[in-house]
Amino acid sequence: MLHKLKYLAGFSLMAGALFAQPRITELVNGASYIPNGLPGSGVAQGAIAVIKGTNLGPAELIQSGIPRPTTLGGTSIRISVGGTDVSGLMVYSSAAQLAFVLPSNTPLGNAVARVTYNGQTSDPYGFTVVRNGPGLFTLNSGGSGPAVLTNPNFEVLTYTNATREGEVIIAWATGVTGITTSDADPAPAFDPPLAVEVFVGGRTANVRYRGRAPGYTGLDQIVFDVPQGVRGCAVSFAMRVGGNISNFTTIPVAGPNSRVCADPNGYPEGTLSNIPAGGLRIGAIELSRTTTKISAGGMTLDSKADSGFGSFVRFDLNSLIRSRGMDAISYGSCSVFTFRGETTQPDPIEPQQLDAGAELTVATTSGTKTMRRTPGGYIGDFGTSIGGLPNIPGGLPNIPGLPGAGAPAFLEPGTYTVTGPGGADVGPFTARVTIPQGFVWTNQDATTSVPRGGQGLTVNWTGGNATDYVMVVGVSSRRNPAVGAVFMCSAQNSARTLRVPPEVLSALPASETIEGVPTGILTVTDSSAVDTGRFNANGLDLGFLGYSTSFLKNVAYE
Questions:
Q1: Could you state, in order of their start, the residue ranges of all structural domains in the chain?
Q2: Which residue among 45, 235, 313, 394 sits deepest, i.e. has the most Cβ atoms within 10 Å of its Cβ?
Q3: Residue 507: CB partners within 8 Å, gap ≥ 6?
Q4: So what's the pLDDT on residue 343?
Q5: How buried is 330 (Cβ within 10 angstroms: 0-12 exposed, 13-18 middle, 19+ buried)?
Q6: Paired strand residues for 544
Q7: How far apart are CA 112 and CA 86, in angstroms?
Q8: Which of 113, 102, 108 is nearest to 131 (CA)?
Q9: Rounded CA gap, 1 and 166, in Å?
Q10: How does 283-296 read in b/e, with b if 16+ C-beta sit within 10 Å?
Q11: Is residue 332 within 8 Å of 131, Cβ to Cβ?
């Protein structure tokens, strides 16, 4: 008997090693990927959800058919809400990620999920079940950038197959609302009397249909008209249902006589019309000044930081149409990017980095600076000067974390020449740009708090070139859980004002206050249009040198 117990104990240890316990690290809407703890992160009844983690399923991904089963390849999911248990309907399963449909009869409220694989069950993972929690599918499968949109012939919209004002478009989403039939079976056409708001370039679109995509499970269709007065490759696109905002994506909208989009602050006219067979090769260099005001304890710390950044990349056609591209925001649009920890989620579609030489040289009448090549691009720190501190005998010393603290300003208004020696992929080049005088954020001092609803946020400015564009960027985050969101809005400089709509601000969490200091950030930046500093080099299809002048301050998002 003792020998038998030893044998069974050994077998149990072997089984534990072979079938490790599943571990859930994330459960999110399967289209938006908004992190748990942010506005819009709840998973709706009837929605497709994604679980990430380890030991969730087989090493190789397997997909289910329809009707959706409750077990797939040894994986099953149990959802518990207030004493009621339901089984998730499996879409696919793999070791690191799985997807399931949350049944429409799942009770609303705080829930926990448990994944079982090969007899081993995970610890519970908490999330929230909501009635409406829309998520828009995107071409990069990461919840940002170009949305999955089709015309009535089900042709996918891309930068080179854009829609036009007034046309009828279909958006593909999940989480609009639950249904009354089985979520495991193909859904019938279901257009409930539900208020669905669709925002295109900050304008409200006319919605023709909102509900299930017939014949699918957990998949929604939203059929809408493209509003008049929107144009660009990165026109913002989002929706709101039952007070819950979706992820912010983009839609390409071309002019009346074209199917190819363009943006003065992104891909200029003609750039995307004839993409070379080898892909699009882009060189982008920016000279930046940021003036920061941090208010705390009745004092204001002023700093002025000058820097440079260069990026030389190649997109093949497939990656180009699925990526966020140059991360430009079309005029009149706003986008929102979420993050975990301390950095925003990068575009899952990464271009190939190009070698333009070991370093770039930036020259003006007052001297020269360099931008050295790093794995992420060319970076140059041109100095940081700090004011607003008490007088220090002997002057201001260098401060750790602020290289060049106390150094004189470098990027004053004037003409700058950037030269590159050439490298393995990009030939030698010379580019010039003139930084203008006098850009000022005029209502900066009056902006100390930002309501996340109401009438939105209005920003005013003067100065800069009329052909420049202005970006308003806001950041708000939480420490527990460590998540946050960034909004970015764009307007032509000549507009002299920009309004951030309340639906954009509602996607941010309320900012925290630490020892009386609000931790939210608001930045207003004037940047040059792409055509301002165009240059040519062997190995590039588009090269431009630009400037930016930014004002940054801390605010409270309430």
A1: 2-130, 135-253, 280-389+400-557
A2: 235
A3: 38, 39, 40, 245, 248, 336, 485, 487
A4: 66
A5: buried
A6: 284, 534
A7: 11
A8: 108
A9: 81
A10: bbbbbbbbbbbbee
A11: no
Residues 6+ apart with CB under 8 A from 514: none
Give me Rg for the CA atoms of the chain: 26
Per-residue pLDDT, 8: 40
Identify whether the C-beta of residue 186 lies closer than 8 Å to the C-beta of residue 214: yes
Residue 146, C-beta contacts closer than 8 angstroms, at least 6 positions apart: 138, 139, 140, 157, 158, 159, 249, 250, 251, 252, 321, 322, 323, 324
Give the percent of the chain with pLDDT over 70: 92
In 3D, which of 291, 411, 423 has the Cα closest to residue 363?
A: 411
- How deeply is 376 buried, as exposed, middle or buried, from its count of CB atoms within 10 A (0-12, 13-18, 19+)? exposed
Per-residue pLDDT, 390: 44
Distance CA 379, CA 377 (A): 6
The fold of 135-253 is Immunoglobulin-like (2.60.40)
**Whose CA is closest to 244, among 180, 173, 176, 144?**
176
**What is the chain's length?**
558
- Which of 2.60.40.10, 2.40.50.140, 3.90.226.10, 2.60.120.1440 is the CATH number of 2-130? 2.60.40.10
Q: Which two tokens stand for residue 141?
A: 């499968």
For the record, the structure tokens of 264 come out as 């003065």
Phi first, then psi, for residue 411 (nearest 5°) are -90, 65
Q: Please, are residues 267 and 296 in contact by the beta-carbon 8 Å criterion?
A: no
**Is the CA virtual torsion 186, 188, 194, 200 positive or negative?**
positive
Give residue for tokens 């490790």: 20
Contact between residue 149 and residue 239 where contact means Cβ atoms under 8 Å apart: no
Beta bridge partners of 235: 251
pLDDT tens digits for range 190-210: 888 899 999 999 999 999 999
Tell me the CA end-to-end span of the chain in Å, nearest whole number: 68
Q: Which amino acid is at 147?
A: A
User: Is the model's pLDDT at 134 over the cut of 70?
Assistant: yes
Question: How confident is residue 189, by pLDDT bands cut at 50, 70 and 90?
Answer: confident
Q: How far is CA 258 from CA 86, 272, 541, in A?
A: 50, 11, 21
Q: Rounded distance, CA 384 to CA 246, Å?
A: 39
Omega prior to 186 cis, within 30 of 0: no
> In the structure, what pLDDT confidence band is assigned to residue 409 with cuts at 50, 70 and 90?
confident
Are 529 and 467 spatial neighbours (Cβ–Cβ below 8 Å)? yes
pLDDT tier for residue 325 given thresholds of 50, 70 and 90:
confident
Neighbours of 18 (CB within 10 A): 9
Query: What pairing do the DSSP bridges indicate for beta strands 280-296 and 542-557?
Result: parallel
Reported as a pLDDT band with limits 50, 70 and 90, residue 2 is very low
- Whether the predicted pLDDT of 452 surpasses 50: yes
Output the pLDDT for position 190.
81
Q: Where are the beta strands (DSSP E) in 297-398?
A: 299-315, 334-340, 343-344, 352-353, 359-364, 367-374, 377-387
